[in-house]
Amino acid sequence: MSVITAYPSSIGNFFTYLKYAQLNDNAVVAYFKLGASKSYHFSTFVGFPQIQQSYLHSTIYLGDYNNTQIRFLKSTQAKAFSEALAKNIQPIILAKLKAIQITLKKLAFDEFLRDSSLNILAEQLLPLLNNYRNNQDVWHKNIYSESIDVFKKLLNFNTIEKLSAALRHNYEQATLQARKQFYDVIESNPLTIEQRLAVIRDNDKNLILAAAGTGKTSVMVAKALDLIDRKTTSADKILILAYNKAAASELTARFNKNTHKLANNNSPLTPHIMTFHGLARFILTQCNLPTALSIFANDANKQTSWLTLWLNQAIKQDINFFYQLLSTLYMPDNTSLAPIYLTLSGDKMRTYQEFLISNLLFINEIDFKYELLQQHGSFHLTSENIKVAFDNNKGLGRIIVLDYPNKKMINRFNQNKGFDQKSIEQQLKIIIPHLKNTDELVNQYQQNSRYKNTLIKHFTDCGLMKLAVERYQPCLQAQRTERLSPREIKTRFVHANIVNSEIHTDILVKITKAYSEELHQQKTIDFDDMINNAYDVVTQKMLIPQWSHILVDEFQDISNARYQLLDALITQGHQVKLTAVGDDWQSIYRFSGGDLTLTTQFEKLVGRYSLSKLQKTFRYNNSIAEVAGQFVMKNPEQYKKHIVTHEQVSQPQVFLHDDYTEHHNKKSYYDKALNLIKNILKRSPQASIAVIARYRFQLTSLHEKIKQQSSNSHSFLESQIFFWTYHNAKGLEADYVILLSFDNSDFGFPAKNKNDVLVEALLPSADDFPNSEERRLLYVGLTRAKYQAHIIASQENTSEFINELLSGNYNIQVASTYFNEQRSSIELM
Fold first, then answer.
1. In whole angstroms, how far apart are CA 317 and each of 321, 323, 442, 449, 631?
2. Which one, of 331, 329, 287, 291, lies nearest residue 311 by Cα?
3. Is the pLDDT of residue 336 over 60?
4. Residues 6 or more apart whose Cβ sits within 8 Å of residue 440
5. In terms of C-beta density within 10 A (0-12 exposed, 13-18 middle, 19 or more buried), how is residue 590 classed?
6. Out of 73-87, 338-352, 578-592, which region has the weakest mean confidence (pLDDT)?
7. Torsion region of 122: left, alpha or beta (phi above 0 gives left; psi -120 to 50 gives alpha)
């Protein structure tokens, strides 16, 4: 082609360094007055040039990536230059358009647009789209209409966020139509729109929030079958992780039941469906690593026996460890759950400070008698003719001398103050000069086996050994579940403001080290090892994951260690897609390591993701859904869901009863529940009924009465009645439920019998909302019912949950004169 040149205008000669611009075969070249030049190759162009004319000169916007400006050109030359440039770059723009169409088809039309593909689209599509948006006339003049049809459809989306949302919406709508027949028949009932969208969305990271009874199992099965049917991946590249063996068996059965519905059901259909422990065992087996389970794995009593024996040996060998262990069995701030304080002497103290005094005297072999007084207990040191007590009146916190051979010394002794162990030791040393110091006690402990054996025997006989095991065995389990290092243990104790956190850390680290050595000696592993060892295998690249898609059920209840294994599989695999399925409203297993923040802070955990909500339930009616949803969403940490029910009723189907029975003229949960069961079965003889309590022992008496009634009168079948705790009710359902335990006691609902403070510090962090997990337990209990939920509550010791239900504008049927009066009085306030 002939070279085309554009020169600066007269005014441009004064305001620009440009000598002239030249258009050649493959570039625009700008030459400058000082001899320099700069080329703009056609390959960098993402659109057509634009020309901006003024009275004295013109400016050309080239249309390259930077949309470079060449200013102050002669207007007639600039127009010719721009038209020639547009003609020259037309083949390049056409080629880029074709490439974009291929990319769009591959990334956004043939599959769900993934976040990992957004950078590609942003780099290829947005620059051309932006140029087209601002320069449509030139585009239409140089490109035939069919080539830019895709731009016309995307014209309004000027950011990658808007563009990706539009492309995904278009893909979802097209797929809903194209796959309608498949989604209609792949499960026993046609999938809902929400379920279909959850199946279709195949981002790098996906979160499906499924409220109770909304068909999450159907979605997981349909999603796996859909991936196979569309040849997105093969069955052996799909990993489905269930929470337990029963769930894994159900998923497998449901999957196998529907494989005949696939278009090509002759291909091998063997997705990996297993629990996390099954997955870990599979990984270890693939690498020929040990998988033999320890005797402790399925028998907590054996682990208890081992820990008891180890502690016994440890305190025999080291008096310092004995003192450390003794000092940590109760908390100085009186937060221990025990109502009394056991001591080596066998006496039961009322305060932590009395506990310290009693043990110091006993260890020093000083005979004493303990007497419980009105304000405080007193210690009568019989051989010394001394009587002392710990006085915390008005917060003084001191040992006071009540009697002493030299009466004049009493006032001087009583000037000392101090709450902690060191202060109490110092005060006693002043009062009893021959009290042994630590070095003297160490020598005595090491050299006098009778003395040592006596201490250890009393430590065991008085119940302190049992208390030590009860305190540190759950800590051992929590530490291993959370994969905590010694530093992390101490950090958590310090963060929880636990006194003597360093001593607690030292004891727990010694226990965990000894436990690991015991497993090594047995040549076995436990369930925590199984997960942790599998994680090590994957991160060390001893096994390269081959899965393309991982689907995780009950994601809200997985532990941090399980997530770390999951993350390792994704990181070490090739473009692995994760779909997490769960319900934050049903997260109830924190005590075993379940970490709700993995769900509620999913974006912080994984980055960008696609969210689907399953909000239409086929289990329960709108009355139960309204009460349960309103109650659980009081906690602002929970995701907001708007539950729609297939079954609609006009009257409240959640009933509140008191525990008073007119026939027996007494208060009894069990008699009231028995009467309710009889009334329900009188109306619906074939109905199933679940009685749900906070603790298993609370069901025993009623279960026995049911057995007796069933065998004597045959008025109903025992097989129709189920007895569940709120925890093991999860995943189950019945026509009617009767909910117990609603009183304000330690074993009531919400439960006040909380975890030990050490265990609480080691478990995953809980949200700050009061009784948040107990609140979710009630949601689980209510949503087990198909038709009606009946709550039986104590009149005299009312649960705070009942107070809330009465005062919080909940649409419940109060079937109790007493509670109706309570509600009326609340409404009048």
1. 8, 12, 11, 11, 54
2. 329
3. no
4. none
5. buried
6. 338-352
7. alpha
| Interval 387-412 mean pLDDT | 72
Contact 490, 501 (CB under 8 A): yes
Report how far apart, in Å, the C-alpha atoms of 248 and of each of 6, 273, 274, 587, 756 are. 74, 6, 6, 19, 33
Under the banding of pLDDT at 50, 70 and 90, the label for residue 717 is low
Residue indicated by tokens 């649960």? 799
Of 26, 12, 33, 21, nearest to 61 by C-alpha is: 21
Q: What is the dihedral of CA 125, 126, 128, 131, to 10 degrees?
A: 170
Angle between helices 501-522 and 486-495 in degrees, nearest 10? 150
Q: Which regions of 3-65 does DSSP assign to beta strands (E)? A: 4-6, 18-23, 27-32, 37-41, 50-53, 58-61
- Written as one letter, the residue type at 573 is G
Query: What per-residue confidence (pLDDT) applies to 335?
Result: 39
Q: How confident is the model over 745-759, as pLDDT tens digits?
A: 888 999 987 778 999
Confidence of residue 146 (pLDDT cuts 50, 70, 90): confident
Which tens digits make up the pLDDT trace of 436-472? 876 677 777 777 777 888 888 999 999 999 999 999 9
Instruction: Give the closest residue to 480 by CA, choosing from 536, 540, 526, 537.
Output: 526
Q: Is the pLDDT of residue 178 over 60?
A: yes
Tell me which amino acid residue 289 is. L
How far apart CA 220 and CA 212 sit, in angstroms, is: 15
Other Cβ atoms within 10 Å of 228 Cβ, number? 24
Whole-number mean pLDDT of the chain?
Answer: 90
Cα separation, 370 vs 355, whole angstroms: 11
Q: Position of tokens 């593909």?
A: 117
Closest C-alpha to 818, from 583, 635, 657:
657
* Local structure of residue 640 (DSSP, 8 states): P
Identity of the amino acid at 422: K
Q: How many helices (H) and strands (E) does the chain have?
A: 33, 29
CB atoms closer than 10 angstroms to residue 480: 21
The percent helix, strand, coil of the chain (3-state, each to 5) is: 50, 15, 35
Q: How far apart are the first and last CA of the chain?
A: 92
Amino acid at position 79, single letter: K
> Is residue 241 a contact partner of residue 551, using CB atoms and an 8 Å limit?
yes
For residue 523, CA distances in Å to 281, 389, 518 come to: 15, 53, 9
In this prediction the pTM is: 0.89
pLDDT digits (tens, 9 = 90+) for 758-792: 999 999 988 889 999 999 999 999 999 999 999 99
CA distance 37 to 29: 7
| Mean of pLDDT values over 220-245 | 95
Beta strands (DSSP E) in 121-265 are 205-210, 238-242
